[in-house]
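Quick one:
INPUT:
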């Protein structure tokens, strides 16, 4: 009897303690924000994976499919997805959407069979012990080293696939193996019609028989009607990469492209949340100049200085009343200006072999110019004090109502020789590292099953999302990321319509 009594007392006591702890935790959680962030910091925010048929009915009668192989970095895969959605819409086929491959370095384009083999080889099967060892802080054996350098995330992580599946029915393909296709849709090899590409820009698909547009950089054209005549259950492509790979010449197709582009907008709540908090500190949407300056690699490194100088002069012309002499002084003299407009020879040789078509339109010998003398009005006199702007000098303090945000891959942008003149003329110029404490939850995003953090892939995206909220957007020519911001993010985030290519843009690009 006594034992039983003490058990009851013990149980009651435990219940009281548990209630107390729960209450205490609850009050901590609903209390001060600072307390919450300190407890939150350790937790990972997991990536949610959809099931293959999350946005689709299983087994639609007579359904036919389209599939392709992903490769290269995020933006190339985004262009592939856009092209594949468009073509699937033309052909009334359901798109089998592969996951996004995030890797550093990214997997390059390869001819079909090689690429498929590489994608099959890209697996974490049999490497569960790597995750265990990493979780326990143990040293990693060699087979584990690559494990943390790549991962897959679903497109639902970035985009609202409900919106996209209203344009084109989608099924998420968990891997690129054929067995899954055979099993899931009860097919065999004869049901698949393959387009196995042997070169990166092998064919372009023309949607309008009545027009005869010249080929872009592609080797040959395929008429849409040729694809329409193929009856196989699955049309399987390799690379779908390349702007203008799938033309949208007819009015109905241009409209479809516009709808698809309008639904391909970054919607991840963690990314949007961070972007919105920073945008509101900058004064809100449409209250600042957004810039996207890529100086990091390839053609951009070669051209970076010319490109930044062009952007600097656009800013000066649009938002200041500086005289030529003043601009010259802020640029560090005529010699510095001329040096800024020289290509970096270090990268030139390497690039010529990769980019045989180097843009000859870059204007190296542009003298220092200044815009007309406009009246500079102080729109919001409080902005500078709210934002912790630089003081500026007697001249530039007048431009403090022009808030500038630079999204860039340049290391240490405030001290970067190419960007210095922008900070000098516009005291209220900001970069992502000025808002470090808004990025905590991005650091927590993780593919938890694999212990792979996504921060390094996501930071450039948030940076771009912020710059896309400006009333004016100035980007890096020839960057696929810049054109994504220009055509899609900037219009949508600032309440305008997305842009689709006009015939003139296309003809321009084929020159
Ligand atoms: C499109 O495909 C669906 C099956 O996926 C079919 O039910 C429908 O009739 C097709 N529409 C046209 C216009 O062919
Ligand atoms: C996606 O968009 C639909 C409207 O098309 C909306 O109802 C839904 O809440 C959105 N989903 C998310 C996760 O934002």
């Amino acid at each position: 009897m006594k034992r039983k009594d003490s058990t009851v007392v013990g149980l009651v006591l435990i219940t009281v303690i548990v209630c107390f702890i729960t209450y205490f935790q609850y009050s901590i959680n609903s209390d001060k924000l600072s307390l919450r962030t300190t407890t939150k910091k350790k937790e990972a925010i997991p990536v949610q994976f959809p099931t293959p048929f999350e946005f689709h009915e299983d087994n639609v009668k007579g359904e036919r499919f389209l599939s392709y192989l992903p490769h290269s970095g995020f933006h190339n895969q985004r262009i592939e997805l856009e092209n594949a959605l468009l073509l699937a819409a033309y052909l009334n086929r359901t798109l089998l959407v592969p996951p996004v491959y995030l890797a550093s370095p990214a997997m390059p384009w390869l001819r079909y069979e090689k690429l498929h083999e590489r994608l099959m080889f890209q697996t974490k099967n049999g490497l569960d012990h790597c995750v265990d060892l990493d979780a326990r802080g143990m040293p990693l054996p060699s087979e584990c080293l690559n494990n943390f350098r790549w991962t897959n995330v679903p497109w639902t992580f970035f985009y609202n696939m409900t919106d996209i599946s209203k344009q084109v029915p989608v099924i998420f393909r968990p891997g690129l193996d054929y067995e899954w296709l055979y099993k899931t849709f009860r097919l065999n090899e004869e049901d698949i019609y393959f387009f196995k590409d042997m070169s990166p820009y092998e064919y372009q698909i023309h949607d309008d028989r009545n027009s005869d547009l010249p080929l872009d950089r592609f080797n040959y054209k395929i008429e849409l009607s040729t694809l329409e005549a193929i009856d196989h259950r699955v049309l399987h492509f390799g690379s779908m990469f390349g702007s203008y790979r799938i033309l949208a010449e007819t009015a109905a197709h241009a409209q479809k492209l516009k709808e698809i582009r309008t639904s391909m907008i970054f919607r991840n709540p963690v990314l949007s949340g961070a972007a919105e908090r920073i945008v509101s500190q900058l004064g809100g949407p449409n209250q600042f100049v957004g810039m996207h300056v890529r100086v990091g690699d390839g053609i951009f490194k070669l051209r970076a200085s010319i490109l930044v100088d062009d952007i600097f002069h656009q800013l000066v012309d649009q938002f200041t009343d500086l005289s030529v002499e003043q601009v010259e002084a802020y640029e560090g003299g005529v010699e510095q200006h001329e040096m800024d407009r020289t290509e970096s020879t270090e990268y030139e040789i390497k690039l010529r072999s990769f980019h045989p078509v180097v843009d000859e339109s870059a204007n190296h010998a542009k003298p220092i110019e200044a815009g007309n003398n406009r009246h500079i009005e102080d729109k919001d006199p409080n902005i500078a004090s709210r934002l912790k702007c630089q003081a500026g000098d007697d001249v530039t303090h007048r431009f403090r109502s022009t808030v500038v945000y630079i999204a860039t891959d340049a290391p240490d942008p405030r001290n970067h020789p190419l960007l210095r003149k922008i900070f000098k003329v516009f005291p209220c110029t900001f970069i992502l590292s000025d808002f470090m404490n808004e990025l905590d939850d991005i650091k927590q995003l993780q593919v938890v099953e694999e212990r792979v953090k996504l921060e390094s892939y996501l930071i450039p995206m948030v940076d771009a999302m912020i710059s896309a909220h400006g009333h004016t957007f100035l980007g890096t020519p020839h960057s696929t990321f810049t054109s994504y911001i220009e055509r899609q993010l900037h219009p949508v985030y600032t309440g305008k319509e997305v842009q689709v290519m006009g015939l003139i843009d296309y003809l321009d690009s084929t020159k």
